[in-house]
Design brief:
The protein is mainly alpha-helical. Helix content is about 75%, strand content about 0%.
Length: about 375
């Protein structure tokens, strides 16, 4: 059974953009839905396996391990490791503080002080995600009315959580393993395609009425950026992957954020441009640069899919486009007195933002190629 179909979403979208594939009708078992079903099956397997192991070991409250397995098992291995780390640290903190504060004072004051101290210590140690789990563990250790010493209850809680974490990591590693690093590569390709669609929507509204779906294009790109930021954090917890790939993924994420910021600024620049005539004086150089930028988004997406950035596109030369546009601006500058100042400022603003986009796109490919090349060179030198 394969986890991925022949083409992912962004690979098919890229093929449609390049006119080498046709749009397909949506089907029920899409790539994303397959991921949902597989993750649901893995979660159920981890919970059931943890419950069975707990019963086999004679644990009285083995369901805490099953609960832990459900909580920490994420959609990819890196996120699972991150959630497991937060949970075990929070449980250990809560067990220590819950047992220590149960030795003196009386409820509810010793309980309140234990929660207060645990949250403060977790915050000072940079473990804010573990502070809530520490509070939950303190509540179980100090408030659950059971016979026996509190230290035994604290140790049982730690062992049950550790059991759930180990089984969740084993399932995430062995059953249809899904790496955050690979998901991030797919997500970055989607990101650049969505940014390209946002760019097309902005320019379609230049010198005409803005598109009705432009806010949705902007929101789609912003949501993809946020998702990729989460995947980037998760990928740093995975032990696999060469340093060059990690650096390249980080660079592409930073360039994607910068491209989005410039696109938002460009959207504001083209507002109220309906009927502008000064920008028509910059044709065809302005349209050529915009066309190559749009193609550049698709090209970088294809580079991300193949993970090869060493080949420059033969049909795109953004620096030459910028030079021709600047020459055109200099040529039409003497006629600027016949146009309104607002039109001139909008045209110059659009030109500046297009230059930024072109150079960011070029830098995203070149800098990523340099990061991967430096990593390969370092590896070969060390052999």
């Amino acid at each position: 059974m394969r986890l991925f179909p022949d083409k992912t979403w962004s690979q098919h979208q890229l093929a449609v953009k390049l006119r080498v594939a046709k749009p397909v009708q949506p089907v029920f078992l899409t790539w994303e839905r397959r991921r949902i079903f597989i993750h649901a099956a893995k979660t159920a397997l981890a919970a059931g396996l943890c419950w069975w192991v707990a019963l086999s070991l004679g644990l009285r409250e083995g369901y805490w391990g099953a609960i832990t397995a459900i909580i920490v098992l994420q959609s990819n291995f890196g996120a699972t490791v991150s959630a497991s780390r937060d949970r075990i640290l929070g449980t250990l903190m809560g067990a220590v503080f819950g047992f220590a504060f149960s030795l003196f004072g009386a409820l509810p004051w010793n309980y309140i002080l234990a929660v207060l101290a645990a949250v403060i210590v977790c915050g000072l140690l940079g473990l804010r995600n573990s502070s809530r789990l520490a509070g939950v563990t303190i509540s179980i250790v100090m408030l659950v009315g059971k016979s026996g010493p509190r230290w035994e209850l604290a140790l049982d809680r730690v062992f049950e959580v550790l059991l759930g974490i180990l089984i969740a990591i084993a399932v995430a590693t062995l059953i249809f393993p899904d790496r955050a690093r690979l998901r991030l590569r797919e997500g970055l390709a989607q990101e650049y395609l969505l940014l390209g669609a946002y760019f097309e929507g902005i320019l379609n509204g230049f010198r005409s009425a803005p598109l009705a779906n432009l806010p949705s294009l902007r929101d789609d790109a912003a949501n993809r950026l946020r998702t990729n930021d989460q995947l980037l954090d998760a990928s740093r917890n995975e032990p696999v992957g060469d340093p060059g790939s990690r650096e390249g993924l980080g660079m592409l994420s930073q360039f994607g954020r910068s491209l989005y910021d410039v696109l938002v600024a460009l959207e504001f620049s083209v507002r109220d441009s309906h009927g502008d005539a000064y920008a028509q004086q910059l044709e065809p150089e302005l349209s050529q640069l915009a066309l190559d930028i749009r193609t550049g988004f698709h090209y970088v997406a294809s580079c991300i899919h193949t993970w090869r950035f060493d080949k420059a596109p033969s049909t795109i030369n953004l620096e030459e486009d910028i030079a021709r546009l600047e020459a055109r601006l200099a040529a039409v500058r003497p006629t600027s007195q016949t146009f309104s100042q607002a039109e001139i400022l909008r045209a110059y603003s659009v030109q500046l933002h297009l230059k930024q986009l072109a150079r960011l796109l070029r830098a995203s490919r070149v800098e990523t190629c340099r990061a991967l090349g430096n990593a390969h060179q370092t590896a070969s030198n060390s052999v």
